[in-house]
Amino acid sequence: EEEEMETQPQINKIDLWLKFNDTIVEEFQFADSVLETECFGGSIKTNSSDPLHNSHPESRVRHWNAYMLFYEAVNPPQKLQTHKVENSSPVPVSPVSSGEDKLSQLQELVQKGERRGMFSDSVPANIQRSVNSENLNFMKNRDVYCKEYFEFITKLVFCNEVLACMSTHPDSETYGQLAIQLAIKFLVHTYFRAYKELRISSSFWVSELDKLLHNSHAACEWLIEFLAGPLGENYLKPFLLECTSKEVRYDFCTILGNGLKSYCTFKEIEIDGPLDIIVTSVLKLLDNDVTDNWKTCAEYFQLLKIYANHPKGCRHLLNK
To answer: Of 50, 235, 269, 297, which has fewest CB within 10 angstroms of its CB?
Structure first.
């Protein structure tokens, strides 16, 4: 033990900052630039480790940050009274107590603390509201991200699919719009954000929505107008490029591609119309976003391929 202690480095510098990083303790250079890099999280762009793609920087999240944990005594510690033990040994020996004795001692301490008001509710109101909000979100997510809820929504979306696809039915447009609205909002807000274990019916969703978009003009028109609007446009980049799940990117790409093709079949492409707005937004991603997400851009180009396979879509892309 003496030899191991002697090999430890001796640090005698004054005003020296140290970095405790799990099992490593090293000197820390206290400067504003170093603090910004090491202590506040955020993201950083670094060059790719792949020698074939050195020109494409990667955006990485800094998972490390700096924090300090300390305890402050509310009341000064009181010296414990030591009981004399009749034993010739100079080291005091505490008597061994059973489990019931320990439990009774703990209960007695809790009762004393309650009488002294040590366990009063002193949590600040803002923290209490934050805790309540987090608990409510936890309860909601527990009830939403479950197999039973996913099965219920699936049955609800496609319960009137036959009537929605029947053009001769007087309420087919209403059924089609309701089905596609519930389906898309459920997919982008819940289904695509769930764990893979819950996304077991992706192929069913893609095939059934393709059937709905192909047969219901109202459903197809609502989808294109929604994705061309201020809310729907925000889903293009996250689900085509930034999403880390290849399955989710593929499903979103396929659903959007089927919608674009069906819309071209139903209606003519108008300049500054909803379909033209979507295609323009997708092409704008080529400026910077595709290169920044080059590892996950396969589904992006798959979408362009699906649209280009339609004669109207091919002419539209060539004119852009």
So the answer is: 50
H or E element in which residue 25 lies: strand 24-27
Report pLDDT digits (tens) over 115-167. 776 666 666 778 888 888 898 888 888 889 999 999 999 999 999 999 998 88
Residue 186 CA, chain-centre distance (Å), reads 16
150 with 189: CB under 8 angstroms? no
* H or E segment and range at residue 246: helix 246-266
Helical spans, DSSP H, in 116-245: 125-144, 147-157, 161-164, 172-189, 202-215, 217-228, 236-237
What is the secondary structure of 190-208 as a DSSP string? TGGGS-TTT---HHHHHHH
What is the model's pLDDT at position 83?
Answer: 46
Q: Are 164 and 176 in contact (CB under 8 A)?
A: yes
C-alpha–C-alpha distance, residues 60 and 116, integer Å? 51
Integer Cα distance of 249 and 254 in angstroms: 9
Nearest C-alpha neighbor of 292 from the set 250, 242, 246: 242
